[in-house]
Amino acid sequence: SGDTVNIPSGVTIANAGTATGFGTDNSPAFHAYRPDSYLAIANDTYTTVSVSNELFDTASAFDTSTYRFTPQVAGKYFLYANVVWDGNVNSQGAILIQKNQQFNSTDMRRNTNYATSTSGVHVTSLFTANGSSDYFEFRVYQQSGSSVNIRNQGNENYFGGFLVTTT
């Protein structure tokens, strides 16, 4: 009990009892969503989506007032976000996840679709975080010529993610 045993490469372990300490729990992990209310997205403006409700947040790494995920563990993270438009945008609707508000290929992932009444758009990707100051936000953009709402269903507008590996 309490001893460390080094297992050499190539060894197969057969479990003859209780196995503990293997694998990880992918923490920090979070899933945040919008309350059941509309959110107006101004024309030609990147808007941070106010996902102020948490389904879970294993490490208190998501801030429900700034809507930012700031993981305090360095590593690679799988992040996802979804938005559903309420009404006909009649143009491209975009969703993006940004690292530190950067607009470059390594720190931002974007997906677009031609937004029609109640159409949605989803984005997923892997990001690297330094574990101390990097943060991530979920933003949307549309160019319809006027303001457009996202739907008032919390289960349709969300942002989440989890640690994949620390290497």
Question: What brief labels describe this structure?
Answer:
elongated, seven-stranded antiparallel beta sheet, single chain, four-stranded antiparallel beta sheet, 167 residues, mainly beta
Instruction: Name the helicity range.
Output: under 10%
Strand runs, count: 13
Shape: elongated
What is the CA-CA span between the terminal residues?
28 Å
Mind summarizing the main beta sheet? 7 strands, antiparallel
Low-confidence stretches: none
- Overall mean confidence score, pLDDT: 88
Into which percentage range does the β-strand content fall? Answer: over 45%
SSE class:
mainly beta
How large is the count of helical segments? 0
Q: What's the Cα radius of gyration? A: 19 Å
List the secondary-structure elements in sequence, H or E.
Answer: EEEEEEEEEEEEE
Please explain how this structure is put together.
The protein has 167 residues and is mainly beta. A hairpin with an 8-residue loop joins strand 8 and strand 9.
Give a quick summary of the entry.
By secondary structure, the chain is mainly beta. Helix content is 0%, strand content 46%.
Topology:
Layout: E1 29-33, E2 39-41, E3 47-48, E4 53-57, E5 62-63, E6 68-69, E7 75-86, E8 91-99, E9 108-115, E10 120-129, E11 136-142, E12 148-150, E13 158-165
Antiparallel strand pairs: 1-4, 1-13, 2-12, 3-11, 5-6, 7-10, 7-12, 7-13, 8-9, 8-11
